[in-house]
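Entry under discussion copied across for reference:
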Amino acid sequence: MENQNNNNLSELDQLKAQYETLKERFEQQEIINDRLLKSSIKSSTDYYTRFRRRQLILYPLFVVIGLLFIKWYQDANLSLMLFWITWLSVCFVVELWTTKRIQSKALENNDLLTLSNQARSFKKLSSVYIVQYPIPALILILGFLLSVMGYGLNAGSLIILIGAVFALFVGVAIAEYRYKTKHCDDIIRQIEASAPDTVKKTKLDKKQKWFIAAMIIVFLSLDIWAYMITASFLNLPRPWFGTRVEYVRTPDNFSTENKLEIWETEADTVAISSAMMGEKPLVQKVEVFRPHIYTGSDSLYLIVHLTPEASKLWYQFTSAAAGHHAALYLDGVQIQDWLVKCGIENGTFFIMKEWSSKEEQEKFCERLIRQ
């Protein structure tokens, strides 16, 4: 009986030893798994540290490149330069603040819930930022394209142009959002897989909500600033300042005063005139964006649409004169001069002129439509 008890005790001791060995192995495995998890999560959090360092180099580079381009292409336009610096500065501050929200300190303190919430908050802040920040650039790019392609685009072409640029920006914004939040998705997925109790819908705190409100206000101000640059410097319409009026030649009117001429100033030769077309009319339609009230020094632009025959001459002339200056004369007086950049196929050109009164502007457009 005593031997039997001794054997049972021996087996029990062996079982206890095996249990302790198994427990020790499990603990070691948990430590290894925990280390692997932290190492994997840390590589994702470290990405945003590297991202901030990279932006410290890229943003000053973008500022310098943009200023050099503006100086070369827009004759060092001060308003555009200030806008470029302000826009990039705002973007830099927002990206720096949002990425700094993801801190590896929470991982070091084993606070996975906080780290998961930080990743979710970053995704929300990034979505608001990525929707806001490209709009000022979109306005400037559309203005630039309109200034290059001419202001006489019909409604269909204008819709296609805006749609193409908008689609490009949306595609880039989606790709950027996925790229920036990819590491956040990795953090959230790994934390939820290892600790399901951390799954939680994160709400933005008061500080983050105020930051979003300030960001929206700042970017809306930049949107207005960008539009004012395109409206004033690129001579685009400012619809809240007035209305559009058209002067159209009747289809059966073939008369012309033969007073309008376009010269290539370098060659000092007439490029287009009704005399070159056998006394046929040059102008088909004139559009003007008229203010509600004239202040006496209103500088408004007119879009002049040529007849189909004159449009062919206009395209030939602008193609040959690309890179040179041209001037428009009425009654031998220079009305407008341009730098011809490329061949213009839509048969249009613009005139920028100051008007002291509505009557003066109306008489000028009536003279144009008779050319």
User: Anything to note?
Assistant: The mean pLDDT is 75. The chain has two domains: 2-236, 242-369.
